[in-house]
Each structure stands twice: as structure tokens, then as C-alpha cells.
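Dear colleague,

Thank you for sharing your sequence with our group. We've completed the structure prediction you requested, and as agreed, I am returning the results in plain text so they can be pasted directly into your records. Please verify that the sequence below matches your submission; if there's any discrepancy, let me know and we will rerun it promptly.
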Amino acid sequence: MGDGSITPRLGNMKALLGIVAGAGASYGLYKLMSGGSFKRNKSASSHSPGVRNSQPIDVTLQPGSLLARVSGLDVVCPQPVDVASADITHQSPGNLDTQHLKMLLSCLQTSNNPPDRCRILLTLGNCAAFTVNQNLIREFEGIHIIAGFLSDPVAEVRVQSLNALNNLCMNIQNQEHIKIYVPQVLELIEMSPVNSDLQLAALRLLTNLSVTDKHQHLLKESITLLLSLLVVTIEELQVQTLKVLVNLSSNPDMMDDIVQAQAPASVVLLFDARTAPAVLLRLLTFAGNLKDWRPSAQVADELRRKQDCLFRVMLDESSQLHSRLVQLLSHPDGEIQSQVARILT
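Please find the predicted C-alpha cells below.
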């Protein structure tokens, strides 16, 4: 098999693992916020620039630890098979070599069949759980090929594109290429159906991209969007949203933007014993990070003029948060009790 003259056979794709399509009517989540608007620079989402040559960064992220902690994606690794007698998407992602990855990317670019695109993206996403494949996909300009399907008309194709980028994001060098798609990812969250697989996949990608503070500034204008998700989504999306917010609030340089963001007053109602413990624990971590913040004189003046900002909702003397925290001191979960006591003291 040669590198440059491979002819992919998409007919074999039809026998692969099926993907359940998750489509739905789209609408703007921002409409749930009265008078809310989200300002973003969308210039990066309209094109896919080529890969730039960059100096190697001496950082290696192992595919197991962080992936298992924040992405929640399963890596499908069936038993190895003979490449000559079976389709390459049936192989273990760890066993694919250079020309297999090139073939997959070629198939992806030429396929006119949405189920085939889903299967190819799923395979590439599983391949991207391995560091060696993360590097090869980047070198083959695969990141920008995969990101091109963020605007695919089929919702499930967009989901699988996000999942593949999520695993590719575990590589520090890959983040430099993926970061330009943040505006497009935020737009997908805003315009997709609430509680959809699209929103969840997009939030997972933002979680991985915000684990370090290098790219957190790209999410400055999305705080209101994230806060609004907390009050309209189910537990799974609340948890994923809070992972992003906790990441951002762990960076002191982000705090001024966070506390000034418009916030729904109902956020404080989530500090309740009836809230799912997985959500409540992350809420308390987020609140604890906010409590450690001290505003500059300029920011303090601005906050006094903003009636609906997060500072007024959660940190101001008029906020209900303090009384709600006191009630949570009797929560049956000992870890929640400890987090509440830490904040109050």
C-alpha cells in the first residue's frame, strides 16, 4: 500500500458500528436570558487555515489520566484483525499506522454519506486517544479536516467531529490548532437544542481546552452563556458546564471577567440540598473560588452599577448565597459539609 495513491473503499463502511443520530430544532440559548447577549469574534469560525510549522513543545500528556477525568469518552479497542481482509475502521485504534490514518482522512473528505462520515470520525476520535496518533493527525492537517465538519448539516456528524477534537485536544501542540475553533464551538452550544449531545460534546472540548490557563482567555465572553446553562440543563450538562467554570475560576486573571458577567438570579437557587451532589460539589468549588477573589477599585465601582452581574447574585451582601450555605451545613454528604464550612470560614 502506498502513501499517496490509496483508494479508500467506502462501501465497506456500511457494515460498521451504527451511530444513533441526535438531531433537533436549533434555537439560541441566549433567548432564555432576558436582555442577554454574547459578544464573540466569529472570524475564526468561517475558515480552516492550514497547519503552521511550530517548534516542538517538550510536554507530553498521557492519554489515560486526563482523558478519563474530563472527557468521559470510551476508547473502543477490538481485537486486532488482518488489514488485508477487513476494513481499517474495525482495527484497534492503537494499531493503525501512518497510511491507515491518511486513508481515514481521505475517506472523510470524499464521503457524501453522513453515516460513513460519523463512523470515520468515530474511528479518528478513538485513534486520537493515543499520543502517537495525536501527533500524526496534526502533521497530516487532520485537525483542520476534522474541524471542517463542525458545520456539517447533520447533527451527529458535528457531535463526532467535536468528540474527535476533544481527544486531539489532550495534546498541547494540538491545542494551538484547535483554539481557533473556540468561537464556532461556543456558537454550537448557544444554537443547539438544550440538553443535546451537541452541547455536551462541545462542553467536553471546552473543559479539556481550559484545563490550563493558556487558552482560558478565549472564553471570557462566554461566562453568561455558561451560567445560563446551569439553570436550564440536566445534571450531566450541569456537571460539564461547572467543570469549565471551575477551571476558569481557578485562574485569578479570569476572575474580574467572571464576576462582571451577566448571571441569572436563579443560579443561587441551585445551592440546595435537593441539587444532585455531583452538581452541588462543583458549585461549591466554584463559589469557593469566587469567595477568594478581591476586586480592584475600578472593578468594584463597575460592579456597583451592574444589578444583574454574578457579583451581585452570589457575592454581594444582599445575595441569598450566605443563608443557603448555612442551611447546607446539615447536608448528609460529609464532603459537601466540608466544602460549605470552608467557604463560610
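Summary note from our side: Residues 1-86 have pLDDT under 50 and may be disordered.

Kind regards,
the structure core
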